[in-house]
């Protein structure tokens, strides 16, 4: 993996991990997410105008943004419902484990092949994701009640699959439309979903969430767009599987902040899982 896409994905992962941490701290997650999504097109309106003036916007390419919108909304829906039911240290790694799906989907749709180091990276990252959710390394945890099939876990897995899908779709989209313009268009279109959802909430709850967390909401708006645009730029430069694997570094940020600030427990399996994912993600730098 070349140095430029490697750096771009690391920056993307850091931004993504931090905004997910801010999201987890929200009192009313539906209100927080809805407000942040509505703020995004407002914050980036001027840069979008400049981008269109410089690079242009082909109306025919807007359908790429439409599909991206559907996948993005599905991901946020699953992510929010997972966070309501699981600790950040569990929900975040699983919901970002697109490496479970990316190698096969990337081969199917783009004919991408990865080398031995690349497979070592994917396997190590996936192992880390599986380990990080265990309560312990005891027999009962490994084969019994340690991994429970519940609604929160199912939402997290579906969120991971949608990440793989919109990553693949993003790689195709940026062949036809500038990454920032693509991101802005589907962010703007996603407001069609988030505005009605926000209006269904109790108005006083929404106002309280804004009053308490307005700066976090605005920070999430900025970081979410920044994180995804950086990833889209990297997708133009390297294989989609390596981008997905390296982006798992974001969970180190999420788990670390969950432990330091939210006082979530860091068990031995979670520590080992973070180490495995960090090592696996780092291997992408050597992969061809």
TrEMBL record:
Residues 7-132, 151-285 form the EamA domain. It comes from the Bacteria. It is a multi-pass membrane protein. Pfam families: EamA. Keywords: Cell inner membrane, Cell membrane, Lipid A biosynthesis, Lipid biosynthesis, Lipid metabolism, Lipopolysaccharide biosynthesis, Membrane, Transmembrane, Transmembrane helix. Its main location: membrane. Gene3D superfamilies: 1.10.3730.20. The chain crosses the membrane at residues 60-78, 90-110, 116-137, 149-170, 176-195, 215-235, 241-261, 268-287. It is found in: Cell membrane. The keyword Cell membrane applies. The keyword Membrane applies. This is EamA domain-containing protein. It comes from Pseudodesulfovibrio sediminis.
């Amino acid at each position: 993996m070349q140095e430029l896409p490697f750096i771009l994905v690391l920056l993307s992962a850091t931004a993504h991990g931090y905004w997910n941490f801010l999201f987890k701290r929200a009192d009313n997650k539906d209100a927080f997410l809805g407000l942040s999504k509505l703020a995004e097109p407002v914050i980036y309106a001027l840069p979008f105008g400049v981008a269109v003036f410089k690079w242009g916007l082909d109306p025919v390419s807007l359908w790429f943004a439409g599909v991206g919108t559907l996948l993005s909304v599905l991901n946020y829906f699953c992510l929010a419902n997972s966070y309501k039911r699981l600790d950040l240290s569990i929900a975040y790694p699983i919901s970002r484990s697109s490496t479970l799906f990316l190698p096969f989907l990337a081969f199917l749709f783009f004919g991408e092949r990865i080398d031995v180091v690349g497979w070592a990276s994917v396997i190590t990252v996936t192992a880390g994701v599986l380990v990080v959710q265990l309560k312990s390394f005891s027999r009962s945890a490994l084969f019994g009640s340690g991994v429970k099939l519940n609604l929160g876990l199912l939402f997290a897995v579906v969120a991971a699959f949608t990440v793989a899908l919109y990553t693949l779709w993003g790689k195709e989209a940026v062949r036809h439309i500038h990454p920032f313009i693509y991101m802005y268009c589907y962010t703007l279109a996603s407001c069609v979903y988030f505005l009605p959802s926000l209006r269904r909430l109790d108005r006083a709850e929404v106002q309280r969430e804004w009053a308490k967390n307005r700066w976090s909401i605005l920070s999430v708006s900025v970081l979410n767009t920044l994180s995804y645009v950086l990833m889209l730029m990297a997708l133009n430069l390297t294989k989609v599987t390596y981008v997905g694997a390296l982006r798992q570094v974001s969970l180190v940020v999420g788990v670390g902040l969950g432990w330091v600030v939210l006082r979530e427990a860091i068990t031995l399996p979670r520590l080992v899982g973070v180490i495995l994912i960090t090592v696996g993600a780092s291997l992408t730098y050597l992969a061809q």
